[in-house]
Amino acid sequence: MSDAMEIDLAGATIGLEGASNPLVEAALAALRANGGQIVGRAQPADILLVSCALRPGTAAEDPSILYAAARKMAMAMTVRGGGRIVFLLSVTAGMPVRRHPRFSMESASILAGMRTLAMEFGPKVLVNAVGVGAVEDEIAGDKAMLSHTPVGRAGSIEEAVAVVLFFCDPLNTYTSGQMLGVDGGWMAGYGRNF
User: 14, 35, 111, 180: least buried by Cβ within 10 Å?
Assistant: First the structure.
């Protein structure tokens, strides 16, 4: 990760809700490399990553359970004076896919929950989401997405991790309630027939 974004987390604690996957592991490694300390589940954290399903057909926790855990952590962060919550979810949260209606709906409900948390707990807690499109080795997205991606290729884990670092950067103090799509332009609106 020599070309990775660098930030100074100065010992901030990092928690995780949801299932692990290669993107989550890379994000945790990058946060650790930038001065963060990983803590166990349900322990107080300065930064919480919320790992959601990144592609249809993958097992994931119930969105309402993830939301409840994130809300509980947001309350604790507020009492401690602040924090960050970053949801890792499918870009279909912002643009449904006809072939995967249930998955699209579940992803959209998580996005709505993320924005609700941003409204409820701001300004002390910044809550954002990384909307992940097709990523190498089918970690995220659907292969059919690639034919509608202006960049013309799958993204890399490092590209998604850079956005996680942006949302966690202590210098980023004004971004909340946003989903930044790491999707090669997929959400730009290409006609979809899948």
Answer: 35
pTM of the predicted protein model: 0.94
Residues 107-116 have pLDDT tens digits of 999 999 999 9
Cα 178 from Cα 156, distance rounded (Å): 21
Reduce the DSSP state of residue 158 to 3 states and report it: helix
Alpha-carbon Rg for the chain, nearest whole angstrom, is 16
Cα 170 to chain center, whole Å?
17
- Token reading at 51: 């790992």
Q: How many angstroms from the chain centroid is the CA of residue 153? A: 20
Report the candidate in 50, 4, 30 with the shortest Cα–Cα distance to residue 12: 30
Residue entry with tokens 């993204």 = 155
Closest CA to 177 of 113, 128, 107: 128
SS3 170: coil
Confidence of residue 2 (pLDDT cuts 50, 70, 90): very low
CA distance 182 to 193: 21
Mean pLDDT for the chain overall: 92
CB neighbours of residue 40 within 10 Å: 8
